[in-house]
Design brief:
By secondary structure, the chain is α/β, with parallel strands linked by helices. The protein contains ten helices and five strands, in the order αβααβαβααβαβααα. The radius of gyration is 20 Å and the shape is globular.
């Protein structure tokens, strides 16, 4: 398979919250919530096992071992940010809330007549909610696809998501920029990311998305597993010699 867009580039750093670190160190399963619209639900995939959350789960099990992670795919086709935010709030209110949220956001907000200002406010609200719940969050911004009619307008929505992620210091997978660069560098190979509608990704596209996320999540789990260095004993006071 052609190397995925962004391969070889640094992935966004991720630090798990203290409660999640404690769960990892005690050998409990790390609960990951993948939430968003069709890119998360897996429209265009050949079968459920080829959605990006399913492919991500397999990569993480390979990297970290069986019984270490659990991914819930909470994607809904056609959903925009206001509805996703309500569902995110519900997940955060549960007793077994997630340890990590992967929030794919923004594509349908362009298509269905939202505004960059509204999207910016919704992403900020969601990140404030996950911070209050002490849940680490990675944002996945909009995808680039061949049929964008007004690129300048679309990119204002992309910028709205990116600005809030930077403002809130949330890890951000800049999917749009990576895919747009790949379309420029290798147009023929880029076409191989999409299903028949040239909008939704196919198995290969979802594999690339999973690949981009797997490294940073595995690194965060390994960092959480690392033993904490013991503090040196306090220095004994020097007694003056007579």
């Amino acid at each position: 398979m052609q190397a995925c867009p962004g391969s070889g580039r640094p992935t966004p750093a991720l630090v798990l919250s203290p409660p999640a670190v404690e769960r990892v160190r005690s050998g409990e399963v790390l609960r990951i919530l993948a939430i968003g619209s069709s890119s998360t639900a897996g429209a265009g995939a050949s079968r459920p096992e080829m959605t990006y959350p399913a492919q991500l789960a397999r990569r993480l099990v390979e990297a970290l071992g069986e019984g270490t992670i659990e991914i819930t795919n909470a994607g809904l086709n056609g959903e925009s940010a206001p509805a996703t935010l309500k569902r995110l709030d519900a997940f955060l209110a549960q007793g077994d809330k997630p340890d990590l949220v992967l929030w794919q956001v923004g594509t349908n907000d362009v298509i269905f007549g939202g505004t960059p200002e509204r999207l910016r406010a919704l992403v900020r609200q969601g990140l404030e909610a996950t911070a209050k719940a002490d849940v680490a969050t990675t944002i996945i911004d909009q995808q680039y696809f061949p049929l964008i009619l007004d690129v300048a307008k679309y990119e204002r929505f992309v910028a709205a998501v990116d600005e809030v992620a930077v403002e809130r210091k949330a890890p951000l997978l800049r999917r749009y920029a990576m895919m747009k660069q790949w379309a420029s560098d290798d147009p023929e190979s880029f076409k191989g990311l999409f299903a028949w509608d040239r909008f939704h990704m196919n198995d290969t596209g979802y594999a690339c998305l999973a690949e981009q996320l797997a490294g940073t999540i595995a690194a965060a789990v390994r960092a959480a597993r690392a033993p904490v260095a013991a503090s040196p004993p306090p220095a004994r006071p020097q007694v003056p010699q007579r």
